[in-house]
Amino acid sequence: MAGIRTPSPISRLEQDLPDVYRQFQEIAQRLEQHYHDMQDLEFTVEKGRLYMLQTRSAKRTAQAAVKVAVDMVEEGLISEQEAVKRVDPFQVYQLLLPRFDENQKKQAEKEGRLLAKGLNASPGAATGKAVFDADRAEQMGKAGTPVVLVRPETSPDDVHGMLVAKGVLTARGGATSHAAVVARGLGLPCVAGCEGIRVSEAEHLFRVVDGTQVIHEGDDISIDGATGEVFAGIIATVDPDFEKETDLRKLLGWADKFRRLGVWANADYPRDAQRAVIFGAEGIGLCRTEHMFMEQERLPIVQKMILAKNKEDRQAALDQLLPFQRGDFRGIFEAMVNPETGDGYPVVIRLIDPPLHEFLPSYEDLLVEVTRLETEGGHEQELREKREMLEAVGAMREMNPMLGLRGCRLGLIFPEINVMQTRAILEAAREVAREGKKLQPKIMIPLVGHVNELREVRRQLEAVAQEITAEAGSAVEYKFGTMIELPRAALTADQIGAVAQFFSFGTNDLTQTTFGFSRDDAEGKFLLKYVDGLEEPGSKEKVKILPVNPFQTLDREGVGQLVSMAVEKGRAANPHLELGICGEHGGDPDSIEFFNEVGLDYVSCSPFRVPVARLAAAQAALSHGEKDK
Amino acid sequence: MAGIRTPSPISRLEQDLPDVYRQFQEIAQRLEQHYHDMQDLEFTVEKGRLYMLQTRSAKRTAQAAVKVAVDMVEEGLISEQEAVKRVDPFQVYQLLLPRFDENQKKQAEKEGRLLAKGLNASPGAATGKAVFDADRAEQMGKAGTPVVLVRPETSPDDVHGMLVAKGVLTARGGATSHAAVVARGLGLPCVAGCEGIRVSEAEHLFRVVDGTQVIHEGDDISIDGATGEVFAGIIATVDPDFEKETDLRKLLGWADKFRRLGVWANADYPRDAQRAVIFGAEGIGLCRTEHMFMEQERLPIVQKMILAKNKEDRQAALDQLLPFQRGDFRGIFEAMVNPETGDGYPVVIRLIDPPLHEFLPSYEDLLVEVTRLETEGGHEQELREKREMLEAVGAMREMNPMLGLRGCRLGLIFPEINVMQTRAILEAAREVAREGKKLQPKIMIPLVGHVNELREVRRQLEAVAQEITAEAGSAVEYKFGTMIELPRAALTADQIGAVAQFFSFGTNDLTQTTFGFSRDDAEGKFLLKYVDGLEEPGSKEKVKILPVNPFQTLDREGVGQLVSMAVEKGRAANPHLELGICGEHGGDPDSIEFFNEVGLDYVSCSPFRVPVARLAAAQAALSHGEKDK
C-alpha cells in the first residue's frame, strides 16, 4: 500500500495459494452483496491464513462510474441527488481529457507497437520524444520539443524535467509513487510501474522485456495514462465529444438543479466561448484581451504602441488596433448568445494586464545578436537598429515583473490604452445590440490595490461611455468591476466595493502575493518539494510543509481568509455587489466547495473544466444543505 | 504658495513698498510676542493695502530648533515633555546627515567656486558629475559614476534619473516643486529654484548668471541641500559628530524617559553596531548575514557552495565558511555590550535571505562573453568554462526572484546552510559568554508563510543546539523567532506565534506583497507618479493615487491592518511573544506612532535614524497618553 512495490495480479494468488484464493472469493462476494457496490479489498496472507484488512466502495473508470450512477437512478435504486453525490468530479475531468484516436491505437496494436502496459497513474494521452534524464528533458522541452520523460523511477531531482514534459513513464513504483503523485498534481499523463520495460540510464534507452524492441533517446513514444499503455511512435489524439456523452449530460443536468453557484468560463476567443457554452457555461467570467495582442498581424502595431516616444505616436498605433479589438469583442459577444433566450450571457472583459515587455522581443536574444554583430564588425545599419531595440527593451525590463508595471497601473500611466479598449468593447456591444440582442458587457480592472486606482479608471471609462452615448444618441450599458487579486484589495474591500459593481477574485495572483510564491518559479524550485515532503536526516518519513499545491487547491487558512474578508466587507459596502472567481481554482472541486460556502455568486474556469465545476458546485450545495440540517 | 514661483526676498518689499513694509514689521513683532515663538507669516498686498493671511510657529533650522527647546526648558519656560514635543524628528534627521567639511567649503568660497545659491529644498550634501538629462544620469549612475542631475525644472519624466543621482539641482521652482517634493521623498539632497544659473539643455551646460563660469556635462559640482549653495568642484563630506551635539543629546535623554517603545538598530557589521550604540540603540533588531557572504575573500567559497553538484561539495564549502561567520558574529556580540551593565544587548541575527543568484556573476555578462568567444572562435578552454558557468547561473535564474527561492525556503531546500549559520552563531555566543558576559542571541527566520516552515527550521536549529550543548557540557541559550513579512504569515499569526518566541515585522517585504509593488521596479515605473499625482485631461489639478510612498510611511489601511491582526493573533497564542519591526518604517516618525499604538515592543532602524526614532517614539507615547485622557 505504500506504493513502493508494483502489485501482482490477483490471478497469481490462484496459482500460488488456491485454497486461500477460493476463501477470498467467497468473502468478496458477500461483501459486495452487502454493500450494493463494487468493493476495493485489502488483505494479507500470513502462514497460509487469510486476513481481511479493509473494504470500501471501489473506484471505477470514469465512464463506468457515470453510467452506473445514471442507471441506478433510472432503475429507481437511488435518487438524483445521490447519483450526483456518488460521482467524483475528477472522473468527469478524466472523461473530457484528450484521448488517443481509437482507430490509430488499434492500428498501432496490429503493427506490434504496443510495447508494454503499466499502471494508469495519471490520466491523459501524451506523445513525444523519449528522454532519459530530467536535465535533457528540460532543455529539449524548453526549446519546444515535446518530450516524454522515461525514468526507472522519479525523485524530487526529476521534477524540473517533469514540469516541461508532456508525460512521464516509470518502470517502477505504484499509484502513490513519486512519479504518480507529482504527475497527478501537475495534470500530466503518467504510466508508472511499467515492469515490462527495462530502462538503461547509461545507454539512454529502454528495452521491452518480452521482445526485441528498443526505444532510444529521441524516438517517438505515446503513453496512455488512463489505460497504462505504452506505444512506439506517434498516435494522434482526439478531443472527446461532449455531445455524445449522454449519461454524463444527464447527470450534469441533475447537478444543475441542485447547485447554487453559477458556472462561467474563462475564454479569450469566440471558439473557446462556443465550446464553453456547449459544456454548459452560463457566462464568460474572464476574457483576457492581451492574447489578442499577440496575434501575428497585430504584434508589430502593439510593439509600435509600446515603443512610441510620445503620445501622438502611441495614439496612432492604438487607432490601428481599435478595429481589431472591436472585431474580437464582437465575436465573443456573438458567441455568447443564450440559445434559449436569444439574449447575451454576461461577458466579463478584463482590460490589459501583463507587463508590456511580454510583447517585445527577448532582451537576452537581442543582447546575443548585438554582441555577435559587434564582435564580427561591419553590419552598421543592422547593429544600430538592434542596439536601439535593445536599449528600448532594456528600459522596460523589471526585476520582478509580476510586481511591476502591469494591471491597472498600465492604464493609469498610459490612459490612451484604456480609452481604446473601452471604446472597442462598447462599440462592439452597441453593434451586436443593434441586431436586437440584449447584452451584458462587464468591464473588469485588474490588479487594483488602492480604491483611488479604481476611481480614476472609472473616470476614464465613464468619459468614453459618454462620448459613445453622445455619438449614438442613446446610452450604452455596461457594468464596471474589478479583480480582487492583491491582499490590499481584500483588506480594503469595503472602500473598493463602494466603487465597483462586481468583484472577481483572481486567486492565482492572490495566492502569489499572499504566500509570496512566484507562479513562474516556485513550483520547480521548491513548492513541489514542499508538497511532496522534505527528507529528514535519520528518518524515512518525509516532512510535508504544505498539504497541497495552493495554486491548485485554494489555501483556505490564508488566501481563503482574505477571500472571506473581502466578501464580507464588499457586500457590507454594496449589497448589490456581484461576486465571482476566475482563477485556476474555479475548476477545482475542493475550492468550489469553499466558494459555495463563503457565498460567491459564480465560479469561472477553463471551458473543459466547466462540467467538473457543475458537478462540484452541486455536491457543494448538497453537502452545505446537509450541514445546515 | 503653490510652489511654482521662486519667492523674492522680503527686503524687496522694503524697496518697492516702504510703507507697507513698515506696517508688516509692526504686525510681525506683535504676533511673535503674543505666541512666544518665531512666526511664519503669509500675507498679500492688493492696491497698496496689506492683508495678513495666516500666522503659525515658524520652521527653524535643525540646530536652532533643538537649541531653543533645550534653552527654554533650562530657563523654566516649558517642560521637558513640551520640549520633546516641539522638535520635529525630521530636524533631528537633518542634524545627523553628512555635511560638507567646513574648511573645504570656506576654501572653495575663497577660490570663487561658490557659483550660486538656491532654495534649500531637501537637506544633505552631494557631489558628482553634472548631467543635464535623466537618461544620461541613469546610464552613468547605473555604471557607478556619482552624478548630480541638473535641470531647468523636473517632471515625472526625470524620476528615473533622480533615482540614481546623488543630488538634484533645478533653476526654477520652490519648496513644493516637483524636484523638491520627489527629492525629499527619496532622501536625496536638492537645491531648487536656483535662479543664479541658466541651464541650456541643448548645450549640456549651465552658465552662472552673474559671472563667466560655465559648468559642462561631466564637470564636478557640489550642492548643499541644507543651505542651497552650489559649488564648482568636489568638497569632501564629513559625518556629524553626535558626541558633540550636547543639546540634542540632552533632548533625546528626556525623550528616553517618556517613550514606551524600545529603539534598536539594523546593523550588519561591528562598526555599524558600535555607531548604533553611540546613537542610543538598545539592541540589534536585524543583523543580515548575507552581506558577510559578499566580502572578497569569501565570495569564491560562497559560489562554490551554491554551485556544488552534491551535498559533500556543498558541505566542504560551508565548512570553510563557518570560521568566517563565527568571527563575524563574535564581532557583533562584542560590539553590543552595554557599557553600563557589561552584559550584551539583544542581537537578532537573521539567517540567509536573498536568492542565491545574487552571489553569482551576472547572467547577462556571461551571455555577452560566451557570445563574443563563440563569434571570435578559438578560446576553447575559456569558452567551455564560461559556458558551464552560464548554464549553472541560468539554471538558478528566476522570473520574479523576490517571490522565489529565498528566505527560509533556502534553508529548507539546503538544510546544510542553516546548520552552518546556526553553529556559527551559537559557537560565537558561547565564546563571548565564556568571557563572563551575559548574551542575548536571537535567531530569526525570514519569509515564513506557513507554520510548518518554521516548525521544520526550529527542528534543524534545536538539533544543532543539542550538539553544541553536548560538546560544551552546558546548555547554550538563544531565542528563536521569525519575520512577519508575508500576508499569509500575518493572517496565520496565531499558528506561527505558538512556535516562535518573537516576531519582527519586515514591513518592506510586507508592503511589497500586500500592494504587489516590487521595491526594485515600482518607484521608477509608476509609484512616484502615483504619489506625485497623475495628469488629468482638461484639468490643471493632478490626481493623487497614493497620499504617500508606502515604502517610506507605513500604509495603515492595508499593511497596518495586517500588522494589527498579527499582533493580536500572535499575542493571543503566546502572551510572552516579543514584537518588533525592522523595516525602513522603523525610522519613520508617522509609522513609529502607529507601531506605538498597536503595542509593539521596539522599532529597529538604520543607526543614523536611531535618534529620530527615540524622539518620535517619545512623541508617540506623549500624544497616545493625551488621547487616553
C-alpha Rg of chain A, in Å? 28 Å
Secondary-structure class of chain A = alpha/beta
- How far apart lie the N and C ends of chain A? 37 Å
Detail the poorly predicted runs of chain A. none
Q: Considering residues with a beta carbon less than 8 A from a beta carbon on another chain, report the largest interface and each chain's count.
A: A-B, 60 and 59 residues
This entry's quaternary arrangement is homodimer
Helix tally of chain A equals 26
The biggest sheet of chain A amounts to: 8 strands, mixed
Strands of chain A, total number: 25
What characteristic shape of chain A results from the CA principal axes? Answer: globular
Strand arrangement, largest sheet of chain A?
A: 4-14-13-6-7-8-9-5
- Overall pLDDT metric of chain A: 91
How helical, in percent, are the residues of chain A? 40-55%
Instruction: Note the beta-strand portion of chain A.
Output: 15-25%
